[in-house]
Amino acid sequence: MKHFRSKPRHRSARTGDRGPAADAGSISLRPSRGRLTAALSVIAIGVIGASILAYNFPISSQLSAAAGSSTALRRAVPGPATSTPRDIHEAQTKPSVTGTPGVSATPAAIAPSVLPAVPLRVLTIGDSIMKGFGLEPGQAWPELISQQDGWSLSALACNGAGFLAIGAADDCDSNFSSIVKGASALQPDLVIIEGSSNDFGMSNSALLESTVSAVSDLQAEFPRAKIVGLSAVWGDTTVPDEIAEINSQVQQAMAQVGGTYVDLGQPLSGHPELMQGDDVHPTAAGQRVLAAAVKEALIPATQAATVAAAGQP
């Protein structure tokens, strides 16, 4: 405390004897004591303040840390005020178990958005090319597509048959019209009937009448089914004019009954390697080419038939 004490004035030689000088020294000492008191007060206040600060420092640190954590939380989890349109879109489009936007789930827990596909019931009517003459069972194009797409297939193609031509006696021994009548017990969603070169040489008027009759019977038997008429298939050689005439009959018949005509073109044309030795019937490889062409051409019809079948009781 010496730093705050005033230096005393000179005293008299006699101990305890105070003269005017001593009185003056006494007077000057009183202000020093006042300053000392003030200094002590300042020091006390400083000590107390330091204690308070030291006591409150952990709390202040905790508050600062909490504030920092809050800031970090706000940055990590943006609220509506700070979300970008992209953030909002991603949150809304995440899959969810309950369909609530923004609730993610594992693929195994997500409910399917569409019902499992029901096998499409398909009826095919045609000639020996459609039947796969000369090949092992299951190698004709209807069976190939059925294997790929899971059709429930009823294949009623017949060797030698046409809309007017009578098929082989050891096979169906009838034409397409008779085959249609024999299929009345079936309940197809999609019916595919194909023009045939077996009808070469028939009268155009008679052929048109028979074709319209067969297709009309299909419509009457299966009013809910999608009916498709395919153009006639030829081999690898030059396509004769009669093919165009037969295709015209099928197209006109489909127009009259509200069916769909599909022109496949000639997928086998110019490819002798896809033909059997008789140069009439496709090989197994040729059937695969036909299957790819037919499947592609039938996409709209099969989709429409699938949708219609899903809506039926």
**Order of SSEs, N→C?**
HHEHHEHEHEHEHH
Strand order of the largest sheet: 2-1-3-4-5
Helix content: 40-55%
- Which structural class should the secondary elements be placed in? alpha/beta
Tell me the overall shape. globular
- Head-to-tail CA distance between termini: 107 Å
Strand fraction band?
5-15%
For the biggest sheet, the summary is: 5 strands, parallel
**Count of helix runs:** 9
| Low-confidence regions | 1-32, 50-116
Would you count the extended β strands for me?
5
Oligomer: single chain
What integer value in Å does the Rg equal?
Answer: 51 Å
Task: Give the averaged pLDDT, no decimals.
Answer: 75
List the defining traits of the structure above:
alpha/beta; 9 helices; 5 strands; 313 residues; five-stranded parallel sheet
Structural description of this entry:
The chain is of the alpha/beta class and 313 residues long. It is built from nine helices and five strands. It has helices at 20-76, 85-93, 128-131, 141-149, 176-182, 204-221, 241-257, 284-297, 299-310, and strands at residues 121-125, 152-155, 190-194, 226-230, 260-262. A five-stranded parallel beta sheet has the order 2-1-3-4-5, sandwiched between helices. Helix 4 (141-149) crosses helix 8 (284-297), helix 5 (176-182) runs parallel beside helix 6 and helix 6 packs parallel to helix 7. The chain is globular and about 45 Å long. It starts with 19 loop residues before the first helix and ends with a helix.
